[in-house]
Amino acid sequence: MGNSLRAAALLAFVVLSILVSLLISSVQQFGARVVSNVTRSEQQLPEALISQLIERRKEIVPLLFLNEDEDHFSDQSLDSTWDYRVWDKIARGSSRAPGAELGCDSLVDMQALEVLGSGYTKLVVKANLAGGLAVALKLVNEQGIDMGKCVEEFNEPEACRQLVAYKLKKEMVLLKRLQHPNVIGVRGAEGGRLAVILEQGTPLQMIQLLQSPWEDRFRVCLDLVHLLHFLSSSPLGSVALLDFQPRQFVMVSGTLKLTDLDDVSAEPTQCQTNADCTLFFPQRNFSIPCVRGLCEGLNQKRNMYNAYRYFFTYLLPHQAPPTLTHLVDHIMNSTGELKSDINETLQAFEELLAQYQSGAHLDNLPAFELSDYWLLQHVGASGGQYRCWLSYSAQGCVLSVHSPREAAHICNSHSQCSSFSLTGQRTWSGRLLAFFRSSSAQLIPNGTSDVYVKKNTVSDTPSL
Ligand SMILES: Nc1ncnc2c1ncn2[C@@H]1O[C@H](COP(=O)(O)OP(=O)(O)OP(=O)(O)O)[C@@H](O)[C@H]1O
Ligand SMILES: *[C@@H]1O[C@H](CO)[C@@H](O)[C@H](O)[C@H]1NC(C)=O
Ligand SMILES: *[C@@H]1O[C@H](CO)[C@@H](O)[C@H](O)[C@H]1NC(C)=O
Ligand SMILES: *[C@@H]1O[C@H](CO)[C@@H](O)[C@H](O)[C@H]1NC(C)=O
Ligand SMILES: *[C@@H]1O[C@H](CO)[C@@H](O)[C@H](O)[C@H]1NC(C)=O
Ligand SMILES: *[C@@H]1O[C@H](CO)[C@@H](O)[C@H](O)[C@H]1NC(C)=O
Fold first, then answer.
1. What DSSP string describes 263-331?
2. How far is the CA of 420 from the centre of ligand 6 (A)?
3. Per-residue pLDDT reduced to its tens digit, 11-33
4. Which residues does the UniProt record annotate as the domain Protein kinase (predicted)?
5. Global pTM?
């Protein structure tokens, strides 16, 4: 990355300097203090573009000095180092971020640019750190629609790049301000190239999720509720995600994380009457009360209904454990009708999780079913794999169970099943992974596994 990166950094610096002087000149026009004159060619930048640049920058400024203890970036201090100081501050982050922040020096292997995803504004590529850690680099998408539109309108590629880059900068500030387990982690930033270094995830695949066990789909919904609970009273106030879609999220080791933060609003909506506070959705409109000049809980409710229509309806009811459906139905109804606030919704989800983990919903499974099986301790199995619906494994039938009793109940309901093994492996919620097998399975000694063999499939006590 050495020379080309340095060249890129130099180029970026030149561009930034030009743009900053442009900003200054445009501020001059608005009667601000005169700092310096601009050259002829810069004056030729369309005014509309200049004012968009100023608008974008204005959005970032208030996000920068929310805390009193942090050094202020005055809106007045318009000199050629403004952009650099801001970026530097964003990139270094505050002392809250644990560990050393990464710069581009720690990145190796930039040649193999594998694209992880791209959108209107940004491009995300894979990169490896010197220590072998895989990260994601978020950059301005030169081929994106944002860039394309700007260049088409103004034919000023450098200034357009800068305009689009402000979205990336804003996102970087927001990611720092809104650190949470369900928001993508920032590992660092690289000023010259204008890249944000993020923890690496995999884009959320709804189609794949629809074919996953209920437990995993429930986890995505639960993560989302944790995120919305945090956003409802975040350091920036109550934050609404304006562009709320599955593609704004990625999965990192099974955890859902928000990655696209450039389109959020932390502004309360002002109102005179309740009619000013209508939430419009294609299927439904909601009227929110106007209380003391503000629409009460509008941001929170907007997020909640989006969570309902993009996530819960697809992921939650389908294949829910039959004895938990009353809790699931309650959640579906109260979020779909916006009857509960986010705190109550979080409580309902936690109740559902607790019920699921406790296995209490299995109390009325017939107790005798486990007595249909021989227990062989310290024995494993191989072969005899068959497929089942919503399996954790593509090759065989692997499902999560609360107890051997639940596994016995499942095995009895599969015509092929004649044994199952438990290896102590657990899912995120703490349930046991059970491997179901047909009668062609071989039993082999294994200190970390127990096998339960159906009695009616063996004539005598099985021997190894
Ligand atoms: N940390 C990450 N790890 C892996 N993939 C990621 C990561 N961050 C983002 N992506 C992928 O890159 C895509 C583009 O990122 P992002 O949503 O920030 O760009 P965007 O231009 O704002 O997109 P959009 O047009 O959807 O708003 C995402 O949809 C996601 O699939
Ligand atoms: C700016 O331009 C004006 C005339 O347009 C000139 O009088 C002045 O000296 C210039 N200032 C600088 C700092 O170059
Ligand atoms: C929502 O309100 C708009 C504007 O009043 C109206 O046109 C639309 O039909 C309403 N949608 C639903 C689903 O009620
Ligand atoms: C909620 O329940 C009511 C009453 O049973 C029903 O009329 C309504 O359609 C349900 N709404 C949703 C979103 O499930
Ligand atoms: C929701 O919970 C948060 C913290 O968990 C609390 O600060 C807030 O006041 C609660 N909101 C309501 C409406 O109860
Ligand atoms: C014992 O079982 C565990 C868990 O299934 C498996 O990972 C391991 O490979 C098995 N060991 C042998 C020797 O087969």
1. SEE-PPPB-SSGGGGEEE-SS-EEE--EETTEETTHHHHHHHHHHIIIIIHHHSSTT--GGGHHHHHHH
2. 14
3. 555 555 555 454 444 444 433 33
4. 110-375
5. 0.81
